[in-house]
Write a structure and sequence with these properties.
Oligomer: single chain
Strand content: under 5%
Organism: Dyadobacter subterraneus
CATH topology of one domain: Tetracycline Repressor, domain 2
Pfam families: TetR_C_10, TetR_N
Protein name: TetR/AcrR family transcriptional regulator
Keywords: DNA-binding
Number of helices: 10
Order of helices and strands: HHHHHHHHHH
Length: about 190
Amino acid sequence: MRPLDPAKQEKIIQSVFAITGKHGLAGINIADISKAAGVGAGTLYTYFKNKEEIVQSAYFSVEDKMTQKMYEQFDINVPVKQSLKLIYVNMLNYRLNHYNETVFIDQYIQSNYIQLNFSKQMAEYERQNKPLYDLLEKGQKEGIIKNQAPIILVSFFDGAVRSCSTGIVQKLFPLKQQIIDDCFDLLWRGITQ
């Protein structure tokens, strides 16, 4: 059997993002994925069993890329506010520069797809985002961050970044440093003592 071509597999996953960006997650079907990726449906089934597996693979792909970017230059020894802002800006930049992936991940999280392997996905999410969990715990020990369950704080953080990026993409407000600073300050005031 011939080895699978990683470039072709990536093309298939990228086509999922492109279709979602234009038509939403509900608009994804095998025929459109095959056409957008420039591969035959038979070839597509060589790489993935079904549409659900393609969508799951796309989710893990974007989640990996996003979390790698989020924690670039992260250092737990830097003060909590400064570290949290670095993660915030990294995540915001990723969302602004990868619109189709952002649309995909936001719709995926709110769809039934997340329930297919929920416990596995949650465990992987917590593993990938351990730096953020650790930073928030550090802030709690220092008496800076509110004593809330970590998942609540992480969800609040994620929602704040998502809202800011959506506002910028939809041109509700401009992409300016002052806007980014103001949005982060609102988040900071929401999670601090």
